[in-house]
Amino acid sequence: MVRVISVHHFTRQDVAGLEHAGGRGVSRGKFDILLVGGEHKVDVRDLKLGGVLNGSFPTVDLVQQLAYCETGNYVCTLETKPARHGGDHRYVRVYLNWDQDNTNQPMRARIAGRVTPSSQSGVANLEMVEIPLRKPAEYIACCQSTGNIAVSCGISVTIFRFCHKTHDISKLKFIDFEELIELDMSFIVKEVAISEDLIGCVSESEAHIFQVTINSHLLKASSEEKETKPQEKRSKSRSKSKTRSASRSPGRSIDSLSSSSRLRGKRSSPKEESMSVIRNSEDYVDLSELTWVPTLSYGRKKPSEDQRILLFPSLVGAAHCGPLAEPGEIIGPINSSRCSNVRVKLVSGSSAQKVPQNVFEAVTLIHRRADHNNDPDIPFSNLKVMAVYDAEAGKKGGASTPRRASHPLLPQGSARKVGASIFLTTPHVGQLYHVTLSDDPFGHSVVRGGVFSYTAPVYSVALEPSLLHALTLTGLETYTLRPHPHVVVSHLPEDLNMIVPPHWEETVCLVGLRPFLNVESLTLTDSCLALIAANNEGGDKSHTVYSLHLPSAASLYKEMVRVGRSHRSASPSTYLHLLLEAHLVLTTALQHEVPTEDEAEEDLYSLLQDSSALLGDYYAQCENEAEWRQATQYYQVSSLSPDAVIERLELTCPGLVAVISSLLLHPNTPSLTAAQANCVLEMLEKIAPEKVSTIILKSTCFTEYKKDKVLSIIKQELSKTNEPRPTDVLALALVFLDRGSPEQVSTVLASLRAYQLVVALLQHSRLLFTVEDGSTRLSPLAQVLAEHKKEVFTEVFVSLIGEGSLTLNAFVDAFIAVYPIMSCGPECNTHSLRLRDFLEKFFLEYAHNAEITDQRERYDRAITVLVSLYLASLMGAFGDKTKEDPNWCDQRAALKELYAPRPVFLNLLPPFNSLLSSDLPSAEDRNNVLKFVTSNPEALGAQSLRILCLDPQKQLEYILSEFPPVLLQYGKDMYESAAEWEELVYKLINHKSSLCESDPSYSVYSDVLNDVLSELVMTAPLDVFIRIIPKNRHEELRGHIRQCHSAALALHLRSSLISYAHNVLMQMSK
């Protein structure tokens, strides 16, 4: 559908007559230059000056087609010369230095790639470079980014590379063209378009737009093939020659061909034959043949699964999320062999990058084929392929970005291409597609960008960034154009996920319809639209140039808004549609255009903000929440403050409260002044007083408000209910804090139950701490909780640390910053006890959580503090038990394994808790404990602390010398391998042997050795026990070896009896 709305969009019209009969070739030149082909010449006209003749340059033959290229500033022509025996000869020629004053200067001529220019230096004269062709040319196109030329010749398209060369003698640089790539299509190409590696070809009934890519798998295989031996190369070449006739598709491998040939020889089964009958039936629907066309959607959205709904033939009226591909239409990306095969051949001898011949493939993006019988709307024509570049990386000619040098069709340095817009038309309908590129060619996104139904058959089209001009049988029609999605996204705030209508399904606007008769060509320059019309009356074949001056984006936007406002009351949908179209005009202008002199005082960004504000006003007056969210997003783009939005809207506006609340709660909203906050408060007090508490608690921009007014509003809300709302109570406490009355906070919070307060604080955790420059600080509210609501404080912060909102180290640093624990005094002891109890409660909850304990950098500082607190307690720092929490004191006394399982051998030593038994303390913490017990050997549990902090090797030596009765239990707790037991027995025997029998400790070590060996006799297998006993002690310990052997025999006998009994039972059960 097309919405017809008249919008005046041309600022001026100039008319000029052509002195000579107009030629068939017309093209734009630099800026507003119009190139018109004549009899063996090309006229140069300046449309800015009304289309007056500004010079000309000669051509060799009659020009049939003109093409201008910005890269190289050259004019390419397709020329014809009558042949002697009928027909004509066709030539493609390039003219250099065409814009210089060539009066009375000869035209130099040469053949591209074969003849170099003259070595004589001097004035840059007009130079003709003939492109060598092997077949008659049908159409020419130039790539504006690379300067390459594409020439269609029958079913072939040849690409000639634009390059700079240096003369061997004079060392002067000159422009030349080399034959680079030849493309063989499956139809006769009547029209071609090229943009770097994106190529489009059109015949009367078929259109194919594809990307020439390098298959990475084929490239890798080709490089590996070069490294193989010559014999292997010959065998592979013989294998390829056998299968070459099977397929010409560059993507098919020899393995796939061989497997398919084997399948051809396989006889089909009855099931396959029955399926073949079903497929051939008239009502058979093959779901694999139904192609889904993604819809055009502007803006950012959160990643979600692509939900696709398929329309079955019987469900014509069912709702769906976009169109299916039209008959004969294929939306890629797919390999070209699946729709219209393209053979890509790199011409040998080219000086381009050395890339193997067989690694190129064509990836189809769009393919359309018309049926001559059922679809009379042919031929296809006016193919346009327009690249879209990343504005942040710099437009073409700006900042360059490194590009892949391996692809011969890509420029060495250019702005990063992110996609392309592709336009194609039939006589009655135009189709716009948008392609978004990715690193993987088969990961590109192709969406339909719009459908244009003309009022009459179309001859020619010209595309501005935001408008489509169509030259039809009745005149000039102008439509609004849907820009590429990247254009819209690039001008949205980075943190804003929003969808910007209209989508492609929305009707486009026919904004202009001007009658013109006998128009033969339509050409778009930088700021003008040129139409050349023929005067066929009275045998006069003169021509007229109509130069229509294009409006600036700012003036077009203002005109659309003016027309839209005139429809605001009578047709709100028309008003919205024009607002959206005007918004896209500005967005597109910011991407493509440079502000003109007329726009010197008009800031496009300011206009874009005004446009966003108008759209926000419209959506705020709608009735549903989805449109209110849309309004909020547009207001964010407009940079309007909440009070400014209130001034734009009436108090009865349905979305006022929702929009203002969303703006106030957004983290990027700038802080409001006292006057702005008062304006917001007055509005909320009138229509939504229940929202004030939420704004106070959650808004980061709402700080400079009138405390007394807020207290009055909240107290009035509290008086309406018997059970106070936690948000109202918490907001009231926060206001008291802001007023400087912390003593009233605890009284206010006492009106809530503990669990209610915990839930409310967790929902508004930003009130408890702040992070500035990487440093965490406790808020005044958190300090009040720490002093008056200890249980709530602990539970809330333990939960916040556990869920990852805060690290334990950051909490400890923030706590110590407010409550120092390193100085002496009774208050220090109180603070230390609070921190110790908090850390113990945290590890009681999370000490066995691997997700917490595996990230040592998040808690190592806390462990160091906790170790220091425990060491201080050993010195009597916390002797006053009255300052401890009695409930937690009893609970922690009952805990034996707070941090980790405590080894049993510690029960044989003076007591200590289980912190050092865990992996939580670092090596530095253990070294500090060792220094402490060395300096304080009489401290409670000093021996246990020393053992737990020593290395395993030193632990054994220390226990062996100081606490030998502990050795057996130590081995049971700590050892897992026979090698460790072997070391213990070896050292125990040696230590015993070093003692005299008269030594009082000799009997102790003898008993310990017997206990250890008796334990091993019963637990270790015989072979392991033999390995543990030193070889030179076997005779001495023969009794223990016999006991182990007897135990092994007893175990074997026991297992045999059990097995025998089991078999007997099995037999009896049968």
**CATH class category label of one domain:** Mainly Beta
Q: Largest sheet, described in full?
A: 5 strands, mixed
What spatial order of strands do you see in the largest sheet? 1-31-30-29-28
Radius of gyration, in angstroms, nearest whole number = 43 Å
Number of helices: 32
Overall structural class, as computed from helix and strand content, comes to alpha+beta
Mean of pLDDT: 80
Instruction: Fill in the CATH topology of one domain.
Output: Methylamine Dehydrogenase, Chain H
Note the beta-strand portion: 15-25%
Helix content: 25-40%
Q: What's the total count of β strands?
A: 36
Using the alpha-carbon principal axes, give the shape: extended
Please identify, by name, the CATH architecture of one domain. 7 Propeller
Q: In CATH, what is the homologous superfamily of one domain?
A: YVTN repeat-like/Quinoprotein amine dehydrogenase
Low-confidence stretches: 233-268, 303-323, 394-405
Spatial separation of the terminal alpha carbons:
84 Å
Give the oligomeric state of the chains in this entry, treating copies of one chain as homo and distinct chains as hetero.
single chain
